[in-house]
Amino acid sequence: MDMGIKDRVACVAGASKGLGRAVAWGLAAEGCHLALCARNGAALEALAAEIKQAHGVKVLTRGLDLCQPGQGEAFCQEAAHNLGRLDILVTNCGGPPAGGFEDFGEDDWLRAVGLILFSAQALARGALPAMRGQGWGRIVNLTSVSVKQPLNALILSNSIRAAVIGWAKTLADEVAPAGITVNNICQGWILTERVEELLAHRSQAQGISRDEALAQAVAGIPLGRIGRPEEMADLAVFLASERASYITGASYLIDGGLYRGLM
User: Fold this and answer.
1) Structure confidence at residue 263 as a pLDDT band (50, 70, 90)
2) 20 to 30 A Cα–Cα from 194, which one of 40, 49, 134, 178?
3) In what order do the strands lie in the sheet containing 251-254?
4) 44: closest CA among 67, 21, 28, 18?
5) What span, in angstroms and rounded, lies between the C-alpha atoms of 112 and 118?
C-alpha cells in the first residue's frame, strides 16, 4: 500500500533508540524527510548517516533535552524552517523510573510530568503553525498500554501517560478543521532498552533472573511473545499517512492482546 507521504517532513522525538528509532526508519522507508531529536546527539548522527545511505532522504538531527522549557517548540520550528515544511510529528520519550507511590516525592512527579506531558505539548506547539498553514498534518503520540490497564510498579507512567490521552483527545477536536489529525499508540511489551530496564527492576524486586522476569511478562500476552519495535513503527507510519485521513482522536493498542478490557 502506498502511504502517500513521500517527500513529507516528519519530526520524531526520542529517535536515537527504541521505538523512536524504529519509527524514523519506517517513515524514511516511505520517502519522508526527517527531523530527529534525542538527548544522545552522537547516536542521532550515526542513525542519520545510516538512513541517508539507505533511503536517500534529508535528515536533520538535534541533541536536546525536551524537559527543558522551549526546546521542543524551537526544534519543530527549526525543522519547518530548514526543511521547508513540517507535516508529521511523532511525540515520544523514555519512561520515568519504576516504583510505587511511596518511592517518589514531589520533585519526581514534576520531572515525570515534564518528561511525558510537557514535552509532547511543547512539540505540538512548535509543529502546529506549519501544519495549519499547509492545511494538513499528523500528530502521533507514543504512550503505553498502561493508559488502558495500569502496570505494576509504574505509578508515575500510569498516571501521567493517561494525561497525554486527555490532552490529545481535546487537541484532536480543536485542530480537525485545519486538516490535522491527532492519534495515540498504546504499546505493550515491545523489546526496547526501556523494557530491559523494567525487566531489570522486576528481576531485582523479586529476586529472579531477567529471563524469568521476561517469562512473567510474556505469560500475560495471548500471542505468547514480546513485540518488535518495527511492528509498532508500522502502525505509527499508517497513522501518519494519507491512508489514515479519517482517523483522529483515537488510541490504538498494540500489545499482543495483553489488555483484557472491551473498549
Assistant:
1) confident
2) 49
3) 59-63, 33-38, 9-13, 88-91, 137-142, 180-187, 251-254
4) 21
5) 9
Closest among 194, 186, 90, 91 to 143, alpha carbons compared: 186
Q: Could you identify the residue written with the cell 525543522?
A: 79
| Grid cell in block for residue 58 | 534529508
Q: What DSSP state is assigned to residue 235? A: H
Q: What percent of the chain has pLDDT over 90?
A: 95
pLDDT tens-digit profile of 92-134?
Answer: 998 999 999 999 999 999 999 999 999 999 999 999 999 999 9
Q: How distant, in Å, are the alpha carbons of 56, 101, 143, 198, 230 from that of 190?
A: 28, 25, 12, 11, 9
Q: Are 198 and 102 in contact (CB under 8 A)?
A: no
Single-letter amino acid, residue 72: G
What CATH architecture applies to the domain 9-188+230-244? Answer: 3-Layer(aba) Sandwich (3.40)
Cα gap 258→223, rounded to integer Å: 9
If one counts every other C-beta atom within 10 angstroms of the C-beta of residue 190, the result is 24
The pTM of this model reads 0.96
Q: Whole-number mean pLDDT of the chain? A: 96
> How many angstroms separate the CA atoms of 84 and 77, rounded?
10
Contact call for residues 229 and 16 (beta carbons, < 8 A): no
Dihedral sign for Cα 252, 153, 260, 217, please.
positive
Give dist(CA 263, CA 261) in Å, integer. 6
Q: Is the pLDDT of residue 60 over 90?
A: yes
